[in-house]
Write a structure and sequence with these properties.
about 50% strand, 9 strands, Porin, 8-stranded antiparallel barrel, mainly beta, about 15% helix, 3 helices
């Protein structure tokens, strides 16, 4: 999982660097000008789509399953589904914006063996728990017009606060977040966007890893905003 996070971080960083190198005034686009768009810098909107936590990363593969691991790690996870959120931002220029987001992720159901440490901690009354996840973030977005169109490709990076709430933990984690996507002005005050977001989590090796784990978060969502 750490290797996967590192590879994704490098990829998003490369996208950000590429956008920085290519972004420039609208009138000087190297492949010709695009139509002028009405510039309304403030925007607020709602989002919805599909997203998932990554609790499944704590479940051992079939080749590695054994009673020793089953004492501390989950044996099954149900997660993933619809996500929803709200956002607001300000476009300093047509190629750069600052944005705040809130996203609610679907609950995950974590299942343990009846002889596990989790079950022991509940006097063997429970073998599973439901965990809730939400995230708030603040990021900068660099946008690049696609030649001869008013569609903008963007990449963004910022800081997120992930909230995990369940019977084992109720805490927040400060962590990096990244986004990529496309947006388009459908009308003077209407902005549509489709994008993907990744937020880093946290995990460490200990006797009961689910006690300290914060899931890594993935989502793909459509966003609709009113500009003013």
């Amino acid at each position: 999982m750490i290797t996967r996070m590192s590879s994704l971080t490098k990829f998003v960083s490369l996208c950000l660097f590429s956008s920085l190198c290519q972004a420039g005034p609208l009138k000087h686009h190297q492949d010709g000008p695009v139509e002028n768009i009405t510039f309304n810098p403030f925007y607020i909107g709602v989002s919805g789509g599909y997203g998932s936590t990554t609790w499944n990363g704590l479940v051992p593969t079939d080749a590695n399953k054994n009673e020793a691991l089953s004492l501390s790690t989950p044996i099954e996870v149900q997660e993933g589904g619809g996500v929803w959120g709200v956002f607001a931002g300000y476009e300093i220029t047509p190629t750069f914006a600052l944005e705040a987001n809130y996203m609610h992720y679907p609950d995950a159901n974590i299942v343990f063996e009846s002889f596990s440490l989790f079950s022991y901690s509940t006097n063997f009354e429970q073998t599973e728990f439901i965990t809730h996840t939400e995230v708030a973030n603040f990021m900068g977005k660099i946008m690049l017009f696609i030649p001869h169109t008013n569609v903008r490709a963007y990449s963004g990076a910022g800081v997120a606060s992930v909230h995990r709430r369940d019977t084992l933990k109720d805490n927040w984690l400060l962590t990096p977040t990244f986004a990529v996507g496309l947006n388009y002005h459908f009308a003077k005050h209407v902005l549509g966007e489709i994008g993907a977001n990744y937020t880093a989590g946290f995990g460490e090796s200990n006797l009961n890893p689910s006690d300290s784990y914060f899931p890594f978060l993935y989502s793909v969502a459509f966003r609709l905003a009113y500009c003013f």
